[in-house]
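Write out the 3D structure for:
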Amino acid sequence: MATGKVITSVAGASAADVNNAVNAAEKAFKTSWGLKVPGAQRGRLISKFADLLEKHQDELCALEALNVGTRFDERYWHVQILRWMGDKIHAKTVETTDKKMAYTRHEPYGIVGGIVPWNFPLLMASWKLGPALATGNTIILKPSEMTPLTALRIADLFNEAGFPPGVVNITNGYGATTGDAIAEHPKIQKVAFTGSTLTGRKILKASAETNLKVVTLELGGKSPTIIFDDADLEQTLKRAAGGIFTNMGQSCVAASRIFVQESIYPAFLEKFIALAKHLTDNTGSPFDPNTRHGPQISETQFNRVMGFINSGKQEGAKVAIGGERHEQEGYFIKPTVFTDVDSKMSIMQDEIFGPVCSVVKFKTEEEVLEVANDVAYGLGANVFTENASRAIRVAHALEAGSVWVNCAQALEMNMPFGGYKQSGIGRDLGQYALDMYTQVKAVHINIGLKL
């Protein structure tokens, strides 16, 4: 676990194990799921599974706290996502002539491979499971090798809910073995992946070299927070802090670049540092209700984040607070705020995935937009202003798949989530996600045309 102590060990799935799971999924798709089961019936099973998640919420939250180090009292909205997905499949009938009719069918691909990361294990699993199952696919789900606990538990709950054998298959293992076997398997028709841009490229390559399986990717980010001088400062401070320090910065939309208009920069920075200090002073166990900041997921990730901190120092950035290991036993890093940064520094260009941010002053809207867009990623962005025209103008100019105005990371289950540029391909959540798990068939029927 993130304190450096071993919790347990689990069996890793080999390529042969993945193949067995695929065979089970194929059998289920052809006999007891897929086009054999009406959407309403699938929806009822999904709803029953969601009921079980809700019933066991305390247990699942405890497992997530052990898995990742997130606070035990954090309640995710995976249940609501699954409920929403259960009954949203629709087709269209198209008017042509009175002698011909045409309609579309949204049909499942068959077997889907879902590969999810370690930062929000259960939530990310629900993002793949919900649309895959609602649209009639069977699924091979691979959780991260670092966070297998909740995935194993929900496998039991799927059985309890009455899902036919083979519809949901959990395969633990490393990316280089289990993940590769999923990405390369010729019977898997679609892979949905959340994780690093580097791994996303490998999955695309595997698709190109095998059966051209459909791939959706939710990848890295380097989100900006832009704060104009007319923003509500107290509200903005809290939301900007949440935008970077939630889950110890281990989020693809972590807003690690905070741009503040120069007239309010000194006041913002002083209070933002105080918020970071409050988190530092309340660092500890995820099971302590007073904890506000936890550990990084692993020693590898701890060293990676510390490497970025050292890089920032070496490149000349100033540490306003933090920048070092916390005294707690385990992989704890003090919330870190850099100032005096250059936009080309590594800490301003690369995804850190830790509690590290840079606070930068700007003068004009045009200036901040140029710098905010000058990264390889385009996943999310936050804008704070009381000027509605400016908010809309800036939101439209930002190169990001999601823009939040006067809030941060405020996802909605019926709104799409995904990235521009190297932040991914396709969308999670909402109707857009469901569309990613079906292939559209157009059916044309002659009811009176004569040759």
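The radius of gyration is 23 Å.
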